[in-house]
Amino acid sequence: MRYKCDICGNEIELNKYTFVFRNNKLRNKDAYCCEQEMVCLTENKGMPTIIRNEYTQEDRIIQHKANQRERRLKKDGYDKHNPDDKPPKRRIK
After folding, report:
1. Residues 6 or more apart from 1 whose CB is under 8 A from it?
2. pLDDT value at position 64?
3. Distances in Å between the alpha carbon of 39 and those of 23, 32, 43, 62, 71?
């Protein structure tokens, strides 16, 4: 991130950051010059978010229902790999 001092015009580039909590905001500890905070010239993209590739509860329910249906069809004698074999109609209880 690039920082510039409004008073003296000094510019620095920081590759490592140490954030501190001052005046209810997160501030870069090393971005101070002339006893004032320097202005950030780099576009602020905010804190990163983590995107996980985990199953949600809804995905697990869908997978469980698909497995149940497959087991039920297998129990009824349906072979999904045989193109001539049609699945049996659903039984109403």
Report:
1. 13, 14, 17, 28, 31, 40, 41, 42
2. 92
3. 16, 9, 11, 51, 64
Sketch the domain layout of the chain as residue ranges. 2-40
61-to-14, 56, 64, 70 alpha-carbon distances in Å: 47, 9, 5, 14
Which tens digits make up the pLDDT trace of 25-68? 888 888 888 888 888 887 766 666 777 777 788 888 998 998 99
Choose between 69 and 76: higher pLDDT.
Answer: 69
> How far apart (Å, rounded) are the C-alpha atoms in residues 59 and 49?
22
Beta carbons within 10 angstroms of residue 28's beta carbon: 16
CB atoms within 10 A of CB 14: 16
Length of the chain: 93
* CB of 63 closer than 8 Å to CB of 38: no
